[in-house]
Write a structure and sequence with these properties.
By secondary structure, the chain is of the alpha+beta class. β6 and β7 form a beta hairpin. The chain is elongated, with a radius of gyration of 14 Å.
Length: about 100
């Protein structure tokens, strides 16, 4: 089980990109180097919101909504790919935990 890395251009400005690392321990690290933003959070604390032209990815640093740290505007295709990657990491983590119990 390895960390998965992705890189997506933002819809608001194609020259700005987000680097996303999904770790096997069900955490996510999002960096936007050009904007100097970086956050590490639990996968459970991210939220996807579809809009007319894109999907907003909201990532919270803590367990409260008030601590919103990063909002990214991704294309539908990129958001779907990210969701599928997150699901795969979660499934691998569940299988590993289940195997360790035996």
């Amino acid at each position: 089980m390895l960390a998965r890395k992705c890189r997506y251009s933002l819809q608001s400005d194609a020259t700005i990109y987000a680097e996303i690392i999904i770790k096997p321990c069900c955490t996510i690290v999002i960096s936007v180097p050009k904007m100097g933003q970086r956050i590490k959070s639990k996968l459970a604390l991210i939220h996807f919101t579809p809009s007319e032209k894109n999907v907003l990815l909201e990532c919270y640093a803590k367990d409260t909504v008030e601590s919103k740290s990063i909002i990214l505007d991704l294309s539908y295709r990129d958001a779907l790919e990210l969701c599928q990657t997150i699901d795969a990491v979660k499934e691998e983590h569940e299988i590993l935990m289940s195997d360790l119990c035996y």
